[in-house]
Amino acid sequence: MSTAVRLLRPRTDPDLPARLARSAAVREAGAQLRTDAFGAWLAERRRAHRFAVERIPFTALDGWRFDGATGDLSHRSGRFFTVRGLRVRVGEGPSGEWEQPVIEQPEVGILGLLAKEFDGVLHFLMQAKMEPGNRNLLQLSPTVQATRSNYTRVHRGAGVRHIEQFVRPEPHRVLADVLQSEQGSWFYRKSNRNMIVETTDDIPPHEDFCWLTLGQIGELLHRDNVVNMDARTVLACAPVTPPEAGALHPDTELLSWISGERSRHEVRTEPMPLKDVRGWVRDDHAVRHTDGRYFQVVAVSVEAGSREVSRWTQPLLEPRGLGLNAFLTRSFDGVPHLLAHARVEAGFLDTIELGPTVQYTPDNYAHLAPRDRPPFLDLVLRADPGRFRYAALHSEEGGRFLNAESRYLFMECGEDEAPLRPPPGYLWITPGQLGSLVRHGHYVDVEARTLLSLLTTGAVTL
């Protein structure tokens, strides 16, 4: 007599949100390192290796060259990334058309966090990783942060530590796994695989890695330039489900609004030779805009004793000015809401992704009359700092951007500043709705994911 085999399993792990919440509640000391000892640990890791970054002329780049026919800047291997031109048209009219350099990196990288329970509490294996574009060089990164070119060892350097946990993970050990975009203003259709994988294996200790709870990471997110962008985007994907009594816009209505925003915007992009991009010039040290705004492409020589390759040269994109990324917040019937913006960026796979209320580099708009400046930008710039529920300075991706930093804010508002019925392209959503959307690729942009990581780690409570 045969016995029926159960094939079905629960669609979701009902215990996982509670396990993550327990980890977020542990803020002062984990299984390995006290939070107040972290600064000394990071400083010791900085002293343990030699790190140096020097600006160089393009002619000093090793393995990189400007193509004679197109002017595109690429590596001789054909891997890593290429800086080329992009022609963009958004809607109608002259203001909706421009040309710019852009980073094209078609390969999908892995950003992976390894999780393990110690004494019944989930911890996450974090790495002290040097990135040449970070102003302070060494920051806290995920367990694995690697392009395909890196983990397949195109550079012929050392292998990526712990990569085997993410290339072929056991399906039942995966806590989160989603393709996410990076900066659509600077990358062309770039995606990374954001992963959280749990293990019960004994992980050999290494001096550049430490186990931290979600709560400890949340505490560190209050410090400027400590937790890097790649760690923040993965942390945002943690499947935390905050209890919410409801929302101004039910989920189906929210998804319909997103579909409508994607449909009403027409974005046409066309890769073009870098040498033909209008309004940009190249000299020995930079590819820059003639007005001195936006960003420039530069070259650096790097020395990093803790990396898979200890010396190399590469191009980097350097923004002109400090970024500002802020969610305006209000409570409706006791439920916190965030004012999301359907952002159009040339490099997105789809026409829009949800970003913070304000996501700009203010210096790029300083020359405009107040009526022509983006909505809510001046409100945040002129606000009393005492109104911010959170404020910190964080670096953007240090492997491709030089000195790219942004102020990240949550700011409470009233009806007179952020109305119940906001301007077109904006919608009030709950943190839970944002967390649900981020479990699917290309709905929430990387700046909004940084702000969401503050909620998933408990760094901010709205």
From TrEMBL:
Pfam families: Hexose_dehydrat. DTDP-4-dehydro-6-deoxy-alpha-D-glucose 2 binds at S185, W280, R343, Q359, Y360, T361, N364, Y365. InterPro entries: EvaA-like, EvaA-like_sf. DTDP-4-dehydro-6-deoxy-alpha-D-glucose 1 binds at W64, T147, R148, S149, N150, Y151, D230, E397, G398, G399, R400. Residues 37-237, 252-455 form the dTDP-4-dehydro-6-deoxy-alpha-D-glucopyranose 2,3-dehydratase domain. It comes from the Bacteria. This is NDP-hexose 2,3-dehydratase. It comes from Kitasatospora albolonga.
